[in-house]
Write a structure and sequence with these properties.
285 residues; alpha+beta; Fructose-1,6-Bisphosphatase, Chain A, domain 1; D-Maltodextrin-Binding Protein, domain 2; 2 domains; eight-stranded mixed sheet; five-stranded mixed sheet; 6 helices; binds 6-O-phosphono-beta-D-fructofuranose; binds magnesium ion
């Protein structure tokens, strides 16, 4: 007889914690006097959500490592098992203006830093008008609504709509490399496309999953690896978008194929409908 599945346990724990994280944002909207390992100012809520998830996820049997965007070192648990990488509060600079944020997670079956091909599951929580979760495992995506500790399935076998509608590209426009700029002009000139950019990756990527389209935080002049982090952001969203029938790219290959060298390394991120990503790779070549 097989025991409980640690992957299910990790996902259930994150889903249960989401309502608490959401409630805990009240009164924690200020910054602390610290930077995360990527040099970004930390909000009180970033540190708090990281500690809450570390505490809960490292006590699960079958979790071997916990890593987060908000701490330099990987936490090693005793024993073997899955390695969980999280961005506890994605887009936390939106706290000040009270706009959308998320929690991102990737569950790898190799020690971190690991390639995206080692992911067995990934997902994100979106703190919007309601709290939702998108979760990918075994090549299929499920959407949930989260209320209190409860998780309700809203849709199974989620796929990106075939007709792309929205696009959102991060980084300052003057910092975009010429080829990416040309691509962006092409995308925006299509009368079927609308701009959506909210400054929280999960909010923007969730729109792409819902309406079809493309989200990118590309390589920039002066920042050839872009801004987003491979272990905590690039890989988990690439895994989910690919499971939903879309594509991911670092500019020339699937993000899941990128060789990891450091737990906090960055990667240019482009995710969305297959034909839009194929075209992007042709333009960037
Ligand atoms: O995690 C980094 C992040 O907050 C993403 O959620 C978001 O897409 C991006 O940074 C926003 O960056 P910028 O402020 O450069 O648009
Ligand atoms: Mg983030």
């Amino acid at each position: 007889m097989s025991g409980p599945d640690p992957v299910d346990d990790v996902v259930a724990t994150i889903a249960r914690s989401a309502s608490e994280i959401r409630q805990g944002l009240v009164g924690r909207r200020g910054d602390v006097d610290e930077e995360n390992p990527s040099g970004e100012t930390q909000a009180e809520a970033d540190v708090w959500a990281d500690e809450l998830l570390e505490d809960r996820l490292t006590s699960i049997d079958g979790v071997a490592q916990y890593a987060s965007e908000e701490r330099s070192e990987i936490v090693d648990c005793e024993g073997e098992g899955y390695c969980v990488a999280v961005d506890p509060l994605d887009g936390s600079s939106n706290l000040k203006s009270n706009n959308t944020m998320g929690t991102v997670f990737g569950i790898y079956d190799e020690p971190l830093p690991a390639p995206g091909t080692a992911l067995v599951a990934s997902g994100w929580i979106l703190y919007g008008p309601i709290t939702t979760m998108a979760y990918a495992r075994d090549g299929s995506v499920t959407r949930y609504e989260l209320t209190g500790g409860e998780r309700t399935v809203v849709e199974e076998n989620v796929t990106i709509p075939a007709d792309p509608l929205v696009y959102g590209f991060g980084g300052r426009v003057p910092d975009w490399p010429e080829e990416f700029d040309a691509y962006a002009r092409e995308v925006e000139s299509d009368p079927g496309h609308k701009l959506r950019y909210g400054g929280a990756m999960i909010g923007d990527v969730n729109q792409v999953l819902t309406y079809g389209g493309i989200f990118a935080y590309p390589a920039l002049e002066g920042a050839p690896r872009g801004k987003l982090r491979l272990q905590f952001e690039g890989n988990p969203i690439a895994y989910l978008i690919e499971a939903a029938g879309g594509r991911s790219s670092d500019g020339s290959q699937s993000i899941l194929e990128v060789e990891p060298t450091d737990v906090h390394q960055r990667v240019p991120v482009h995710v969305g409908n297959t034909e839009l990503i194929d075209r992007l790779e042709t333009v960037l070549e």
